[in-house]
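It is worth pausing here to work through a concrete case rather than discussing structure prediction in the abstract. The textbook approach is simple: state the sequence, then state the predicted structure, then interpret. We follow exactly that order.
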Amino acid sequence: MTTITLVRGDITRQTVDAIVNAANSSLLGGGGVDGAIHRRGGPAILEECRALRASRYGKGLPTGRAVATTAGELDARWVIHTVGPVHSGSEDRSELLASCYRESLRVADELGARTVAFPAISTGVYRWPMDDAARIAVETVRSARTAVEEVRFVLFDDRAYETFAARLN
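Step two, the predicted structure:
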């Protein structure tokens, strides 16, 4: 049984086996969570991302997929990069968002990670409404078949924390 916990704070300050990065498909860093993870984790993460781009992901990591690298200087063993979908008012992309959580947990299982910290994927620049993102995240993690013992949702502000707390209860 996976325990789900909520933390209001900075995902780059978490002590876990794996930190999930809400990456862009280039894997080469960006803004928001992605930029923060690359800045705090240092150049080793970008180096491994470049190697992934040069080998398996020449066109970038597809939306809904996940891949792991070192965590560099973060207090974790791995960073699991996943590419969330951009929210659309005309097309239902919920399955792609759910896939980010499922695929990240699948990669965590392959690595042997037992504690995983997730951000609220796609809720920043990709404009996914927080309430719907929280519903998808919590339902997907609750129904996932995984050996991960703790999933920690690390939420940047009070609004996100309260929204996830309401969905968890």
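Step three, interpretation. The chain has one domain: 3-23+63-68+75-168. The helical segments are 32-41, 43-54, 94-111, 130-143, 158-168.
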